[in-house]
Amino acid sequence: EVQLVESGGGLVQPGGSLRLSCAASGVTLSNLWMSWIRQVPGKGLEWVANIKEDGSEKYYGDSVKGRFTVSRDNAKNSLYLQMNSLRAEDTAVYYCGRREFWGQGTQVTVSS
Amino acid sequence: DIQMTQSPSTLSASVGDRVIITCRASQSVSYWLAWYQVKPGKAPKVLIHKASVLQSGVPSRFSGSGSGTEFTLTISSLQPDDFATYYCQQYSNYAVYTFAQGTKLDI
């Protein structure tokens, strides 16, 4: 059974940083493009970032470009999202995964 | 960037109804279109990928059609478990994915 477990979310002040982690089991991430998406409370889904199997290509949504960095460690079967210069509008539940499977999400709250 | 638009934004229906949700892309995405079901506190669940391919384990009352810029999700006979929010997503290019704003399906 495929399982993705996100961690690292929490409460952070505007301008602060957080690093989200996503640990996978039941699937080998090294063969897969992976994504981060988010859902703002009461609002829709938003694509955040994509990363190629070997990490050589990375793409970001316009709202996070220049502030967020996606990375991966295939040896640890894990995915990461470094989030800097956080804003109130980044408050959301963040999910790692790809079309066929997603984690249960981790809550990020940006507030003073 | 490709913009995705869904209609309607909200939909009231009853158990047993046939429901159709429409998704339009601002430019062609070929058949690179997925439909998700989202329930509060749960991870998104893919229903359809490549516009019309039913994800393994998803009930056959769900179906998808379309290509290019116009797509539909049909639920042939609504069940109580189907009341949720539905999103389409284009994934025609790894450089940018886009979700539509969603359709809330309620009783």
Mind explaining what this structure looks like?
The complex is a heterodimer of chains A (112) and B (107). In chain A, strand 9 (92-98) and strand 10 (101-102) form a beta hairpin. Helix content of chain A is 0%, strand content 52%. Chain A has 112 residues and is mainly beta. The model of chain A has no long low-confidence stretch (mean pLDDT 97). In chain A, the strands form two sheets. In chain A, strands 2, 4, 5, 6, 9, 10 and 11 form a seven-stranded mixed β-sheet that branches. In chain A, strands 1-3-8-7 form a four-stranded antiparallel β-sheet, with no helix packed on it. Chain A has strands spanning 3-7, 10-12, 18-25, 34-39, 45-51, 58-60, 68-73, 78-83, 92-98, 101-102, 106-110. With 107 residues, chain B is mainly β. Helix content of chain B is 0%, strand content 52%. Chain B is built from no helices and eleven strands. Chain B has strands at residues 4-7, 10-12, 19-25, 33-38, 45-49, 53-54, 62-67, 70-75, 85-93, 96-99, 103-106. In chain B, strands 2, 4, 5, 6, 9, 10 and 11 form a seven-stranded mixed β-sheet that branches. Chain B has a four-stranded antiparallel β-sheet with strand order 1-3-8-7, with no helix packed on it. In chain B, a hairpin with a 6-residue loop joins strand 4 (33-38) and strand 5 (45-49). Chain B is globular, with a radius of gyration of 13 Å. The chains are: A mainly beta (112), B mainly beta (107). The interface between A and B is medium-sized, with 22 and 22 residues.
